[in-house]
Amino acid sequence: MSLTITVFVSLLIISLISTPSMSSLESFVFGGCSQLKYISDSPYESNVNSLLTSMVNSASFTNYNNFTVQSPSSSQDTLYGLFQCRGDLSNGDCARCVASAVSQLGTLCLDSCGGGLQLDGCFVKFDNISYFGMEDKTVVLKKCGPPIGFESDSFTRRDAVLGYLGGSDGSYKPYRVGGSGDVYGVAQCVQDLSATECRDCVSDAIGRLKTDCGPAAWGDMYLAKCYVRFSERGAHSHGGNDNNNDEEIEKTLAILIGLIAGVTLLFVFLSCLRNACERGKDGK
Ligand SMILES: *[C@@H]1O[C@H](CO)[C@@H](O)[C@H](O)[C@H]1NC(C)=O
Ligand SMILES: *[C@@H]1O[C@H](CO)[C@@H](O)[C@H](O)[C@H]1NC(C)=O
């Protein structure tokens, strides 16, 4: 009994510690599904399931991979899937992120022929139309922070950071980070792009950040195959969503702490009871 309680308490403590950091990697950024639906219990559905399972398994070994699931019966059932984790994630974090993305995608795009989902730490996509190696600079999500003025030091530093992210040192870097003072930036391509396509996509995103966001404290520009984000330290780069998230985490923490306190009390009560019983027996 007491062992079960101890294990339960430790589990709660582990989830208490790991919740905040994981939930930020797994924060929802955007998602979309194709209009077409497949028939339930069809070969298509089993191909989707096997594709998504392969992605989750593969993510514990590599930050990027692509999959083609051929169907012998019909070419319409051939599926193409890929995942891309942010370049700085460990294999463990990448696997957790992709698992979360795949499960969110399953709910969001129930029975859809295709779908894509971007979390903070990873991107997953599947469809029965091939898109591997195709550059796509469609704007999927754009968010700009409050203006800070063209004259500010931060604005100069932002330009330096974006300049670095868009520059090239000859090697292919699908993931780049840059910082200047308190301004931090990150660029990430989906690795099915070639070096040239990745650079082109990133420079397009940077151009849009500059024109669309102007002198903003932070900006997120997600194109279909790459994204660029920058932020001043302390400036929130998710606007309202993140605050809600923080509130959610606080609520969860409060509930967990309450549970732990309750369980501890129960534990203390039970051991008192046992001691009392033993004393009772001794007294006989
Ligand atoms: C994708 O699957 C849907 C539903 O099975 C089908 O209608 C569509 O033609 C397929 N597209 C391709 C390119 O095979
Ligand atoms: C797909 O993955 C294979 C290895 O798994 C790799 O050789 C190939 O270059 C990848 N294709 C694209 C378009 O990324």
Automatic annotation (TrEMBL):
Subcellular location: Cell junction, Plasmodesma; Cell membrane
Transmembrane segments: 253-273
Keywords in alphabetical order: Cell junction, Cell membrane, Disulfide bond, Host-virus interaction, Membrane, Repeat, Signal, Transmembrane, Transmembrane helix, Transport
Keyword Transcription: no
Membrane association type: Single-pass type I membrane protein
UniProt xrefs under PROSITE patterns: GNK2
Residue span, Gnk2-homologous domain: 26-131, 132-235
InterPro entries given in the database record: Cell2Cell_Antifungal, GNK2, GNK2_sf
GO biological process: defense response to bacterium
Primary localisation category: other
CDD domains in the cross-refs: Gnk2-like
Pfam families (UniProt xref): Stress-antifung (PF01657)
UniProt signal peptide: 1-24
GO CC, one annotated term: plasmodesma
Subunit-structure text: (Microbial infection) Interacts with Grapevine fanleaf virus (GFLV) 2B-MP.
Recorded family membership: Belongs to the cysteine-rich repeat secretory protein family. Plasmodesmata-located proteins (PDLD) subfamily.
This protein's name: Gnk2-homologous domain-containing protein
Organism: Manihot esculenta (Cassava)
